[in-house]
Amino acid sequence: VGIVGVTGAGKSAFINAILDREVASVSEGNATGCITDFVWVADPRGEGVAVTLRNRADMEAEIREFRGGTTMGRQKAMLRELAFTDIGGADGLLSTGRHAMRLRQIEGLEACRELDTRPRRPLEELWRFTNAQLSPLAYGVERVTVHVSAKVLERVTLVDTPGIHDPDQRRARLAINEAATLAGWFYLVRAIDAPTDTVRDAWGRFDGAANNRRAALILTMLDLSQSLGFSQLESQRRSEYAREGWDRPIAACSAAPRLRSRDDMWRAFVVAAVGLSERQDKRLSLIHISEPTRPY
Fold first, then answer.
1. Nearest to 213 by CA among 186, 184, 188, 242
2. CA atoms of 108 and 281, how far apart (whole Å)
3. Are 195 and 241 in contact (CB under 8 A)?
4. At what angle do helices 56-67 and 72-83 cross, to 10 degrees?
5. pLDDT one-digit tens code per residue, 71-123
6. What b-and-e string marks burial along 143-175, b requiring 16 or more CB atoms within 10 Å of the CB?
7. Strand, helix or coil at 56?
8. Residue 59: how many CA atoms within 13 Å on its side-chain side?
9. What is the pTM (predicted TM-score) of this model?
């Protein structure tokens, strides 16, 4: 089951709440840099992270194209010179920022050359391979499989994806390409955001690439769950999405890292999953959860 949506909707925080553990890397902005599968392992001693790198020939081609025969020292010196030179106001600053981002990506690809081939790494290292903001290594990673001893994963594999409108087009394509492999998907969107053209385009692109319509919309409230006007906002958004053509289940939850918020997300997960299985296909049984600590 895919956890998809635009950047910053709370996808990774949602997965952490369902697993009841801080496993997925969470930060502001474009955090998730690759497809990340969360799969069940019975023995906690078997927990860990398996990393699949991008095609090595493709990575080497990118490095050669960027370096263009120059040394790393010359590239860094060029970047420093650009950063302290007036090269045309906002356009110049934008150009410098793009160059800095690209240099960081290339350094990440070069670092991937030195990675050892361990079949499984500790869970604590997950952020190094998935968090595109904190670790340049993530640019060289195609997919990560996270083995976790969490009861919910016994019946369902959760798939975290990059934001559909991630500014890095390669990462955005990863999310869209994953659509056809999923048995169902949860589309997360911030409740504070009205169903704009950007949001409609994102779910439309994913819907078009998916091989079925088993989907549920989950409104994430971030810190708005404590707001007096929350219920009204939720009701308003449900009506707006229905008018825009969303005819599948809708659930809502907070995405802030608090205990109450985790219960909110768990409730939304169950509501959405039941909606997927009962409304779309009587034969499909996505989850069967027996958790003594959860009343849902």
1. 184
2. 43
3. yes
4. 60
5. 555 555 455 545 444 444 444 444 556 677 778 888 888 888 888 777 889 99
6. bbbbbbbbebbeebebbbbbbbbbebeebbebb
7. helix
8. 19
9. 0.79
